[in-house]
Specification:
Elements (H helix, E strand, L loop, with lengths): L1 E6 L9 H16 L1 E9 L7 H5 L4 E7 L7 H5 L6 H4 L4 H11 L6 E5 H5 L19 E4 L4 H11 L4 H24 L2 E4 L2 H10 L6 E3 L23 E5 L5 H21 L4 E5 L5 H5 L6 E5 L5 H6 L2 E4 L10 H7 L4 E3 L16 E2 L3 H12 L2 H18 L2 H16 L2
Parallel strand pairs: 1-2, 1-4, 2-3, 4-5, 5-6, 6-7, 8-9, 8-11, 9-10, 11-12, 12-13
Helix pairs in contact: 1-16, 7-8, 10-14
Length: 409
């Protein structure tokens, strides 16, 4: 097959969860098919990484762009049918670059990341001569289902009156836009069965949906790559980008309702918060006893190995959940909310521990920290499950074979 891939960012270095998914799936597709990549480069950043992708893509082009200012509520935002979160990515020079890049090529499929890129492949009612890309079979890889994510964010966060109105306005438009994308798409590729269920119930019963869960690079995330000894004191890790709302909310919940209860059970508890771009709220947690906020680090693997457990107290679902497969591959057990582990098909008490209320989360975390045999069991079984089912090479091959069977039969 010949596949046109369009990404809203350059996913290298793979220092965000979504970058890991898009990078590894792209590389897997390129092993079996001829792949051309066009990716956006915000403010011209990461363009020096072109040689990385040139090793496995036939053609590579990066398009510099700058996000426009968010529109004023009236008239620019309210009178525009596009949701503002999608319109924010709609730029004329990007559309022209995609058309130019694809001109004269005979692709079998366009593979794009998320609906913000899918909008460039939608038919334009006013166009007299629609460009060839508007007729290509379209596969939309969903790092998260936007409507699902925004509904979960609205329900989990405390919002002021003005923000509540903006949420309602954007979600109303997003429902229509999601359905428009679904009508155009040949397939939507999602991270888990929960995403598929949401699409079927809230967006479309007709669009094809292929589940490709998130995984881990087992050559990189291996205990032998970071021979860091476990901390001498009971230590939990929270790892993730600190400029991502669900992660910030997870830490807010942990420190508001769980931390002191957990310290009452495990007085010498240490907490490591590792991830890029921590804001003032996250940095302030370092003032609490036993809490360290590192910010971005060049290599997260030593922190996985130092921790006795990783905690994933996420309350907002939708999207990638890379930290759990990484942690299990590194031999570090996980305590997570059900939302945090959605889509991975991991078993409570076997691969990890699941807890959704403050009392349960504290109980399960304390139980693991104070029971070496339980940690050893979770370490062994979690690693075994990851190696059996969640390697990127296995998941990428699954997607590659699906495309070959679906679009070349």
């Amino acid at each position: 097959m010949r596949i046109l891939v369009v990404y809203p960012y350059i996913p290298f270095p793979v220092d965000r969860g979504t970058y890991q998914r898009t990078f590894h799936l792209l590389r897997s597709l390129a092993r079996d098919h001829t792949v051309d990549l066009l990716a956006l480069s915000e403010a011209g950043e990461r363009c020096e990484q072109k040689s990385v992708f040139a090793e496995f893509c036939r053609r590579v082009e990066f398009v510099p762009f700058t996000h426009p200012n968010w529109p004023r509520l009236f008239p620019d935002r309210l009178l525009n049918p596009l949701p503002a979160t999608v319109r924010h990515w709609l730029l004329p020079h990007v559309r022209e670059a995609i058309h130019r890049f694809a001109d004269g090529e005979r692709y079998d499929l366009a593979h794009v990341c998320d609906i913000v890129m899918a909008q460039y492949f939608l038919p334009q009612p006013a166009a007299r001569n629609p460009p060839p890309v508007s007729r290509l079979p379209l596969a939309v890889d969903r790092s998260r289902v936007d409507l699902q994510f925004q509904l979960a964010q609205r329900d989990a966060l405390s919002r002021g009156a003005r923000q509540a109105v903006l949420d309602w306005e954007n979600i109303t438009k997003l429902k229509r836009f999601e359905r428009r994308v679904a009508r155009r798409a040949a397939v939507e590729v999602v991270c888990g069965p929960d995403d598929e269920t949401f699409i079927r119930e809230r967006i479309s019963r007709d669009v094809a949906v292929q589940v490709v869960t998130n995984g881990v690079d087992l050559d990189y995330f291996t205990p032998a790559a970071a021979p860091e000894p476990r901390a001498t004191e009971p230590t939990v890790l929270f790892c993730g980008a600190m400029d991502y709302t669900p992660n910030v909310d997870a830490l807010r919940w942990f420190f508001a309702e769980l931390h002191e209860l957990l310290r009452a059970r495990v007085p010498d508890l240490r907490v490591l918060i590792v991830g890029k771009a921590p804001g003032a709220q996250v940095q302030a947690y370092a003032q609490r006893p036993g809490v360290t906020v590192t910010g971005g680090v060049p290599d997260v693997r030593p922190f996985y190995r130092r921790a006795w457990l990783q905690i994933v107290p996420l309350r907002i679902g939708g999207g990638t959940r890379l930290k759990i497969p990484e942690s299990l591959a590194m031999g570090t057990p996980v305590v997570s909310t059900t939302i945090g582990a959605q889509g991975l098909d991991l078993r409570h008490g076997h691969d990890l521990l699941l807890a959704d209320t403050p009392e349960a989360f504290v109980r399960e975390t304390a139980r693991a920290l104070t029971t070496p045999a339980l940690r050893a069991h979770l370490e062994t079984e979690g690693a075994r499950t990851v190696h059996a089912r969640l390697s990127w090479s296995r998941l990428g091959k699954q997607l590659s074979d699906y495309y070959a069977n679906r679009f070349t039969a």
